[in-house]
Amino acid sequence: MSLHDDTVLVLKSYEDQAELRQAYLDHLAAHPDGVWKACGAGHITASGLVIDPERGQVLLTLHKKLRMWLQMGGHCERDDTTLAGSALREATEESGITGLTLLPGGPVRLDRHHTPCAWHLDVQYAALAPAGAVEAISDESLDLRWFPYDEVATVADESVVRLVEATRARL
Fold it and tell me: Using a CB cutoff of 8 Å and minimum separation of 24, what contacts does 27-31 make?
């Protein structure tokens, strides 16, 4: 199965945000290359909010290009075979934490936003950090920092706050 087909199946099984979900499905139907960065009309991205429920905090990255505190995530790559795998790869690469596991139940939220490269149709997962996880800054980050849930709104935009809220509701 291709990443495009997997993404369609993931979105069809996602039960929230019906209007936005349908916009993602329409985009993929119109653009066979809609999961790749090369699709100038916009493309699917996959992200993973790294969370440590036992300590009540999330790990955010200070994105090098956007200079904003965000969850880990980015473009799908040719080696990715599933959207969940892409989100887990991104979360692992950008956090430096090995042993992350995705929160069961599929994506937590969808978020469409414009970036310097194109529209990103982000499919957002949550990644559980293992006990004693130690982060390491990647080339894509200026900084990595753990934030208690109630401090996220003081550093990040509404999309990240909504992702944290949706993730906490799923825990």
Answer: 27/121, 28/4
CA distances from 122 to 42, 80, 107, 119, 148 (A): 10, 15, 10, 9, 24
CA 37, distance to chain mean position in Å, is: 15
Q: Please report, rounded to a whole number, the percentage of residues in the chain having pLDDT higher than 70.
A: 100
Short-list 120, 91, 85, 76, CA closest to 106:
85
Dist. CA 148–CA 88, nearest whole Å: 22
Q: Which residue has the tokens 């990595």?
A: 144
What is d(CA 31, CA 117) in angstroms, rounded to the nearest whole number?
17
Question: Under a CB-based contact definition with an 8 Å cutoff, are residues 140 and 63 in contact?
Answer: yes
Concatenating the DSSP letter of every residue in 102-113 gives: EPSSS-SEEEEE
pTM: 0.96
- pLDDT given at position 19: 98
- 53 burial level (CB within 10 Å; 0-12, 13-18, 19+): middle
Q: How many residues does the chain have?
A: 171
Average pLDDT, the chain: 96
